[in-house]
Design brief:
The complex is a heterodimer of chains A (about 375) and B (about 80).
Chain A lengths: L2 H9 L4 H11 L6 H18 L7 H13 L6 E4 L6 E4 L1 H8 L9 E5 L2 H4 L2 H11 L2 E2 L4 E6 L4 E6 L1 H6 L4 H14 L6 E6 L4 E6 L5 H13 L1 E3 L6 E7 L2 E7 L3 H6 L9 E2 L2 H7 L2 H18 L6 H11 L20 H7 L2 H10 L9 H7 L19
Antiparallel strand pairs in A: 1-2, 3-11, 3-12, 4-9, 5-6, 6-8, 7-8, 10-11
Helix pairs in contact in A: 4-14, 5-13, 12-13, 13-14, 15-16, 15-17
Chain B lengths: L10 E4 L2 H11 L8 E3 L3 H6 L6 E6 L7 E8 L5
Parallel strand pairs in B: 2-4
Antiparallel strand pairs in B: 1-3, 3-4
Classes of the chains: A alpha+beta (about 375), B alpha+beta (about 80).
Chain lengths: ~375, ~80
């Protein structure tokens, strides 16, 4: 392309994407300078026409554009992601969850990408998954309740430990510590025979069988390997690499695991993303989650509406919900807030605090019966006296 | 790990005083009208911005391809 044209495109006040489209369109085409300037002018003109005008009520348009297709969504769907049967909430409940900025989604799940040296090989991917999936002690050997001697005998299976890449020494150290710290159960003593890979747990109170059985329950279920919040890990091959899907989410701890690609791994827990990766990542996550929830149901909503919602939610540095504890509850106008939810509380609080309503928004002007300050209502007449 | 390397985190840069003034006069706004970001946000900690700094965020936008956005660093309010 003529370098002169290239320069003109670069300096034009157009978005990057439009410039790129223009470049690919003009690639290899023989055009005169005159033709080029006509094309560029028309493109700029067209772009200016598509821009939203100042004072346009974009919020209402976004609300309608997401709300109407939302009525066509399935009320309750449980989707199993492919053959891997990982259960994820989708459809309307998931959309509501995103907008409400819940601290924890009803089905937290992660998509864990692996570093190159692990992602190509199923066995190596499985190795990483052992470090992530929470494994209780009973998976590593036999647990027997010895009622005669009032103790619990754990015979570890060396083959299983070897396969899962955890040493017997680690397990005998972790198990009693975790029962005390994580499960908050301290009324027991333990003895270890590391050579024979056997552990003995004795309740402090040797009089009651109830204690023995209670202790057995703790011993059986104590998590000795993996991350406590992650209940299940499924390894799947997608576009030439192995990816881990999980039930349960803990972004911070997963990032510490060797072999995990910390640049691509993600979770569907938005509040976790905002804590670990920051507010901008949370904004991206809201857009991605909302868009994929809608698209999964075959509903095409323009991304601009979702971007506006995400922008509003992340405006103040933390993720705020749309409802009365977030954006709608922080509106300036008393009447507007009262019109939304818990009317009497807002009116009462406003009266106590001597609040003044400036009547600058749409809702409050509709309530008092004045023209709203949008469209034709935005025009004001200023009269100049003749003399 | 560096959070800025994650695909979901856009580029964050601290703006110079001059650039900030240019920004304010371009849109005729004050610092209060900018979106906010907390001082203990993981991305803010990485670039080492202080309370009162303005951060330029270069996003890859679904619509424009590349979009700039700005955030003012504020202290996280106590609950």
């Amino acid at each position: 392309m003529n370098p002169e044209f290239e320069e003109a495109i670069r300096d034009a006040s157009l978005p990057d994407k439009t410039k790129q489209q223009l470049r690919t369109f003009l690639e290899g085409k023989e055009i005169t300078r005159e033709q080029f300037s006509t094309i560029l002018d028309r493109v700029i003109n067209e772009y200016m026409n598509t821009r939203i005008e100042a004072c346009e009520a974009v919020g209402i348009i976004a609300a309608q554009s997401i709300g109407e297709p939302g009525t066509q969504m399935t009320m309750r769907t449980f989707h199993y992601a492919g053959v891997a049967e990982i259960n994820v909430t989708l459809g309307l409940p998931r959309l509501i969850e995103i907008m409400d900025a819940r601290k924890e989604p009803s089905t937290p799940t992660m998509t864990i990408y692996l570093q190159e040296e692990y992602s190509g090989d199923r066995d190596r991917a499985r190795e990483v998954s052992w470090q992530i999936e929470a494994a209780p002690l009973h998976e590593f050997g036999d647990i027997v309740i010895d009622m005669e001697n009032m103790q619990i005998v754990v015979q570890l299976n060396a083959a299983v430990c070897d396969k899962r890449k955890i040493s017997v020494a680690d397990i005998v150290e972790i198990a009693p510590r975790k029962i005390k710290d994580r499960r908050h159960y301290r009324d027991f003593d333990h003895e270890v025979d590391e050579k024979g890979a056997v552990m003995y747990f004795m309740p402090k109170d040797k009089e009651s069988y109830q204690n023995l059985f209670q202790l057995a329950e703790h011993v059986r279920n104590v998590i000795v390997q993996g991350i406590d919040d992650i209940e299940r890990v499924v390894v799947r091959k997608e576009s030439g690499e192995y990816i881990l899907y999980t039930e349960g989410s803990n972004l911070k701890d997963v990032f510490e695991v060797v072999g995990v690609d910390t640049t691509r791994t993600r979770t569907n827990n938005i509040s976790e993303i905002s804590q670990v990766l920051g507010i901008e990542a949370a904004r991206n996550a809201i857009i991605h989650e909302a868009l994929s929830t809608l698209n999964e149901q075959g509903i095409m909503v323009d991304v601009r509406h979702i971007m506006l919602v995400a922008d509003m939610m992340c405006m103040d540095g933390e993720v705020k919900q749309i409802g009365r504890h977030g954006i709608a509850g922080e509106k300036e106008s008393v009447l507007s807030r009262a019109a939304f939810e818990v009317t009497v509380n807002h009116l009462l609080d406003a009266a106590v605090a001597n609040e003044v309503d400036e009547l600058s928004g749409v809702t409050e002007n509709v309530i008092v019966g004045q023209p709203i300050q949008l469209g034709t209502g935005d025009v004001k007449l200023i009269a100049k006296p003749l003399n | 790990m560096n959070v800025l390397e994650h695909v979901m985190v856009p580029d964050h840069q601290i703006m110079s005083e001059e650039e900030v003034q240019q920004l304010y006069s371009l849109y005729t706004i004050t610092s209060e009208q900018l979106p906010k970001i907390y001082h203990d946000d993981p991305a803010v900690k990485v670039i080492g911005a202080k309370v009162g700094d303005v951060i330029r965020i270069v996003r890859t936008s679904h619509t424009a391809g590349r979009a700039e956005s700005y955030r003012l660093v504020i202290k996280r309010p106590k609950k």
